[in-house]
Amino acid sequence: MIDIKNFGKAYGDFIAVENLSLKIEKGELFGFIGPNGAGKSTTIRFLATLLRATHGTATVNGHSVVEDPIAVRRSIGYMPDMFGVYDGMRVWEFLDFFSVAYEVPRANRKAIIGDVLELLDLTHKRDDYVNGLSRGMKQRLCLAKTLVHDPPVLILDEPASGLDPRARLEVKALLKELRSMGKTILISSHILTELADVCTSIGIIERGKLLLHGPIDKVYRKIQSNKQLEVRFATAPEAGVSLLRSDPLVKNLQAVGRRAVFEYHGDDAAAQRLLRSLMAPEIGLVSFADKEPTLEDVFMMVTKGLVT
Ligand code: ADP
């Protein structure tokens, strides 16, 4: 559905994105993850036909981004990372404006606007001014406008950024619903864990390079094979830490205060034995858990070549 080949973008001497190739199949919910400045928006803007590549090509829904941008625009709903300013415009007018821009037939507009307002739970805000909406509602409205022409592909640039946890959950639920409606979705984020439970596949980009991509379970399995454990002690950690250091399966141990984090190179049975020995009363163990990988951990592993 989305096929990027050798995309590169330079601003003067600065290379923002380097030789990026990526395929996203129909029906996928692809999470495009990387820190601020990694090159996500640059790639997304190229796909949305808003930016000229230094080199490379891409097709969206079978249309070339470079040669047939109009067909691409009809195929996508694009949500930029900035909302923009819409002074004096009401919610329904905002959606009507985009319906006209996308050449939705006049006879269908009212019903479509009603439907997307319903889907995004904004019906009660129909006549409110856009500028008076909360950030979460603005994000939902922006998502609503990507749907008015019923495109098969959605390209969403950081739709959950700056939202409170409840609004973020709502965005996730919506993404799932849109996927169940058959949309192919590319969504960017600078937070790995934010997307992990909704995406079917992810790509990790750093400093303009796509470091890793694939189905989420495969990527997580790779990351998890370098399993990290975290333990906490109720009292002074010395006894526990020295027990951990004596275990040859424990690597790269870092002890901070009453906490210790380490890579564990054993299987579940070995981890169980380790847990049992840590449960001796003099060690004062209060917690023993898998440490959820953070984006930083993934970057460390990827850049150290531990995961490819
Ligand atoms: P992300 O979306 O991952 O935060 P961007 O794609 O916006 O990253 O930016 C990638 C890099 O390109 C950043 O270092 C940014 O400063 C730079 N960049 C983006 N747009 C321009 C521009 N118009 N001129 C010069 N540099 C730019």
TrEMBL record:
EC number(s) on file: 3.6.3.-
InterPro entries: AAA+_ATPase, ABC_transporter-like_ATP-bd, DrrA1/2-like_C, P-loop_NTPase
Pfam families named in the record: ABC_tran, DrrA1-3_C
The entry's keywords: ATP-binding, Hydrolase, Nucleotide-binding, Transport
Alphabetized GO MF terms: ATP binding; ATP hydrolysis activity
ABC transporter domain ranges (all copies): 2-232
Protein's UniProt name: Putative ABC transporter ATP-binding protein YxlF
Protein family according to the UniProt entry: Belongs to the ABC transporter superfamily.
